[in-house]
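Q: My collaborator sent me two sequences in one message, no labels, and asked for predicted structures for both. Can we handle them in order? The first one she listed is below.
A: Yes, handling them in the order given. First sequence, followed by its structure tokens:
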Amino acid sequence: MPVPGRLLPPPPGGPAVTAPSDRGVLADRIARSAADPGDGTAGVLGWLADLAQRSFTTAERVPLEELAGWKTDPRTGDLVHDTGRFYTIHGLDVTAPDGPVPHWRQPIIDQPEVGVLGILAREFDGVLRFLLQAKAEPGNVNGLQLSPTVQATRSNYTGAHRGRAVPYLEYFQRRDRRTVIADVRQSEQGAWFRRKRNRNMVVEVREDVEVREGFRWLTLGQLHGLLAVDDVVNMDTRTVLACLPLTGAAMHEGDGPATGGTADDGFREALRRSARCADGAAHPTPELLSWLTDRRSTVELRTRRIGLAETDGWRRRDGRISHERGRFFDVVGVAVRARGREVDGWDQPMIAAVGTGIVAFLVRRVDGVLHALVHARAEPGFVDVVELAPTVQCQPDNHIDLPAAARPPYLDEVLRAAPERVRFAATLSEEGGRFFHTRNRYLVVEVGPAGVPEHPDYRWVTLRQLDGLLRHSHYLNVEARSLVACLHSLRHPNRGES
């Protein structure tokens, strides 16, 4: 058994690099990695704990007025960097005539560049492993989390910060050094980012790769096990993992009776059928795409950039920007000091959510095939108005003062679920580079055979259908992609084992 984190030569006579067009063979190899628990999760958690003792990162809240390198535009009130690079926080005026709240204004992050979220893959003894880094982001509630091999904005990798070069970036820029497994542009949080996109990539190499301090090779089975641990696998890793072609693969060793956890044999088999079978969907894919296109064509959501000073209902006081009712989120200042990053220290504004949110899929078995209930959700920051979201995606306390019609459908189904219906539960952090201590409770909740009434803005879909949509940009939002990765983690009995 190869030791994760130690460089090994390719096995003699090993298989040739799989062409990305050979989807069946590729899915089969990835599924084999998902079925392999490696040396478990305990060693990875110990490695993270040891690195945390030797790393140095602090993120101290400071007043917005004291952020070094940032200024408030005297005309608009916008928060902008002195260089004009990185990102801006300005105001957004939103009109949604058919929504429960027809009009509002809010702060939003504007970062008009495409970053790279890339994971390097390499085969060891016939099993694909993925190179992850232990990265401390200023917004992480617990310091180090597992990040992609490369997690960098364009400003970072073009040197706008005047810091050190981004390790391993060349594998994602030079076509002659890798074989592409996944490469697709995806959105980020449409409620807090204006048209933000990142390039989600997984590339495979055959050559030796130097493993730097803070990086480690892991099987997909190990990563799936670590998804069940709170605040370990970061948001950027989750969204890239969701883009792996995992459906349609054959059965592998390790696909067998449950040895623990919450997923029973029947549930796991229904999930595998959902991933493997091209037939059995409650809504055929052409019908699903037509429904989504209709929602994108008919939902009216108008946005207009305004100055941050014009965001009615928001107040700048005590060194931060907050909603007058204390709901939603704050805009706060953070001073960061770090060791091992491209730069050793910087200041920045960040969004800090008020409270822990709920992100959940309701799932049900339809003729033995598991389906997830997705929501055609409009958010002001999306490029194409509507993307497929989880069944529930909200902070419940934000709806206390809103009209009853604004309460998310199916929220009570999730909150009142009996423990035996909860198939996955973990509290996971959102992107720590822009969001400060912002976390959601990720849940997969199974409903009975009768299911729940299907709201016009919702559809039951299979995991294979979701995988097909993830080959393309802007179909699933970032919260749904995280949950797809969590769903895949339930296909094998090694989830959460050490």
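Q: And the one she listed second?
A: Here it is, processed independently of the first:
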Amino acid sequence: MKNLITSLRIALLAGAIFSSNASAQSLPSVPETPEAWKQAARNDIEAAFLETKNNHPGMADPQNPGFFARLIQAKERSLEYADAVTDAGGYRAALQIFNTMIHDGHAGVRVTLPPDSPYTQKWPGFHAVWRADKMMVYASELAEVPAGATLHSCDGQAVSAWLQSNVFPFSGHAENPGDWWTHAEKLMRDNGNPFIKLPAKCELELDGKHWLHHLRWTKISAQGKEWERRASDGEQLPVGMTSPKPGWFWIAAQTFSPDESQRAAYRKMYQDIREKRNELLKASAIVIDLRHNRGGSSGWSRDLAKALWGEERVNRRVKAYFAETQVWWRASEGNIAYLENLVGVLRKEAQLPVADTLEKIAAQMRLARQADEPFFKAVAAPVTMSMQEAKQDLASDPPALQRPVYVIVPSRCVSACLDALDVFQLFEGVRFIGAPSGADSTYMEVRTVALPSGLGVTVIPNKVYLNRPRGNGIAYQPQIVFGKLEWSTKNFMHMMEDDIARKPL
């Protein structure tokens, strides 16, 4: 089963766009009365609960015995909110409660309200973000609220308390540091959530000066939406390797879900890295830029690592690192049918190696189900090499990189982006710079099932990693926290240059 396991993170990439009920993708009719919104919320929560109960690997995961109890709590709590739903904002909030309580970033529900639904996002005229340990104004249309100002409190309560009451019950989890970077900006947004009270006046501070500002909530402007897109990760760079200054090599890998042109760019970049290896060995620094990266297929980062450090060197360390890891596929009827359908799609697209892999997995899952087993356990051959042994270079390895390798990590780095960090951190001289990463679960390879209302989907993972070194809900902390307001290439360059000056290799 070795080949099955090594192909898993690549195998279902094509399935990301393949819905389990593709026929249900037409535009839904939006509820027109408060009672209809309430009923839609209740129906969708009940459906999401059943789909998750019947198919989620957590239901039989021996390393997560509390999953079902948490799922029941998620249903009951979100149904309590659903009873008070009267409109689109309440509907969204009730389903978000289900997500936060199930506590699985790869499962739950994803709501997509139609553009013409009766809802208009509002803001107070400025965009605020979390940086390191505080909330700051990123950009503003108001002269009295300048960029760079710190928000200390609102209506007499600390900003952190507002995040605990207004944001984290509906988005992210307060115990994950990266979620503060990702979700704190929602405090200064009115998304029509009827279950929260919006702040009215906030205390701000800049250069030692404190003042009170009364918030005026109005429809968000186009400029506000643009700031929202730019604030978290800065510029979006094309896939490839550049040299912004002599001795520096900047590797832009800001997506692991590449389109056709980006796939070609990745292949060219791998070749460029190999051809310039002698220059990389003498580099001042190598930068792997993961800004904007939200995951996809881990094959792209694995191939990047092989180009940088050498294929066999990477293979040895990865095998030793994951020596105890097992992959179990949840053998539910829904999951099996999904994979069997996906095999047919992949064959029509001439993706035959992936189709062959999935066909074998689906067949083993069906055998497991016939035997009344909850999982097909794709267990690899035992790995006997220790990490210490794996780190010993062989004569066939290319010369080892001994220069600083900085990996820019955004707080939204999840899924295959985290898989990349798993691999990169196995090599000497690697330093993470940026924010705490996201924290995903050990449940992977998702499919979607349309909700009864048509206003979103239930997300169902198909498999679970057991004994993965990075545990369920564990994030990466950067060695260098990037607390500057603007996540620009220029600012990162300056901070990395300062780090090299302080701690040269």
